[in-house]
Amino acid sequence: MIPGPTPVPEKVLQALSKHPIGHRSKEFQELVESTTKNLQWLHQTQNDVLTITGSGTAAMEAGIINTLSKGDKVICGENGKFGERWVKVAKTFGLDVIKIDSEWGTPLNPEEFKKILEEDKQKAIKAVILTHSETSTGVINDLETISSYIREHNTALSIVDCVTSLGACNVPVDEWQLDVVASGSQKGYMIPPGLSFIAMSQKAWEATEKSDLPKFYLNLKSYKKSLVSNSNPYTPAVNLVFALDEALNMMREEGLKNIFSRHNKHKLAMSNAVKALNLKLFADEKCLSPSITAIKTEGMDAEEFRKTIRNKFDILLAGGQDHLKGRIFRVGHLGYVNDRDIITVISAISNSLLDLGKITVQEAGEALVVASKFLETK
Prior knowledge:
It is a single chain. The chain is α/β, with parallel strands linked by helices. It has 13 helices and 13 strands. The relative contact order is 0.16.
């Protein structure tokens, strides 16, 4: 029950175990054609969605180095570990970073983006880089509003980390006119780590013609050229593509609306059960991510609590990162997670709190009643 790698369905594991085939074969080209169409469906886009053998960070770096040039002015949103990472990546490649930040556990303020973009009369800002679902804190940022302000600027690109939001909540790439959208296989896609995905708008492709940042393996023009013939410029992770094909077929069968609804009810069940257990949510309740719930552990060490749950129930929870280590634990509920999993992890947390004398038997029972009410919703 961590935010990645997430549980992998049996059917996907079986697909993963197939004997590899040649990545230049007709059979593999048919597989690439199928997965590409389903990736476009998941991203709700008619534009290119490229598959890279690498992590979500590879996709985000690719988005930055293929569309920008050294010295370009960019806005970076930072309200957690991954927003912090994109600031570091941008600075590594010599970009001029304007940072918009907020305290970890609170969302980025869209109006701050609007103000800076409106004041940029010379159109010097070339991109806005931000994280949609901040995995480190359990916060989801208001991408829809921020992207509308980026569109009004008319020059800046949106470069978005959707690693724990794609496949968990609505990210209509074309409707919101997002330019570069990155995600990773080990999250909502329900397959092991190793693949990343990057959706590119026509505006983003136009920006690649001016980009002067160094790139070779992550040169997206090579991937676009190969995709015309349903191929890949380099040796891909063939068996992960087998798994991807099966996972996307499962997602298509469930349907986008049902996928988003399932993640939302798990978020509500988890967050409300936490409150019933006299624990506090780390993230602002108005901006809870559908993928992960971060929980404060005032009066006890979060790392020791995680260890107890792992030893006693064989359930792995995520810890806090950087200054939050020992202060919070995080429950992942994205991808191949069902109602039983939510009830099980709430029961484990309740039982452990009961053993520590932190709650009563009645409170433990009430948490399950509260969660069940949300799980019963369609």
